[in-house]
Amino acid sequence: MTERTLVLVKPDGVERGLIGEVISRIERKGLKIVAMDLRMVSQELAAQHYAEHDGKPFFNSLIEFITSGPVVAAVVEGPRAIAAWRQIAGGTDPVEKAAPGSIRGDFGLETQFNLVHGSDSPESAAREIKLWFPNL
Ligand code: RTP
Ligand code: MG
């Protein structure tokens, strides 16, 4: 079944010059990019995007981090796109969870600075795509 998911290249990924690497991996997998832009993230958007983590010990530093520099936001489409992109991204902790060969496994060291984001369910994807690309 064709799905859509929200992909972010977080500020650390942009800063490290990994936009091309991420796009290349999306395209090589056979997924399609249907919207994409580079932008700064407002406090409001950051808090809404990460609302599920509000109140957790890492919430404030997460918001500070995601608003610290430009991100690339994209909507990616394809069969099982949500799970497919999370496989390409790798687990949340780049060392303990992300497999070698995934983006986080290949390029990440710390959980907070894990380079990319992907929606974790169809409900999250619908909510996040509406938040980031209201006109899509
Ligand atoms: P994301 O939402 O960014 O795609 O990452 P995820 O699903 O793999 O992980 P999630 O549990 O949703 O956490 C969101 C982001 O918060 C930061 N985090 N820090 N210090 C910590 O223990 C901790 N836990 C999570 C990471 O940047 C994570 O991607
Ligand atoms: Mg998440």
TrEMBL record:
One of its GO terms (biological process) is GTP biosynthetic process. Its cofactor is Mg(2+). It comes from the Bacteria. Keywords: ATP-binding, Cytoplasm, Kinase, Magnesium, Metal-binding, Nucleotide metabolism, Nucleotide-binding, Phosphoprotein, Transferase. The keyword Phosphoprotein applies. ATP binds at K10, F58, R86, T92, R104, N114. This is Nucleoside diphosphate kinase. It comes from Pseudonocardia thermophila.
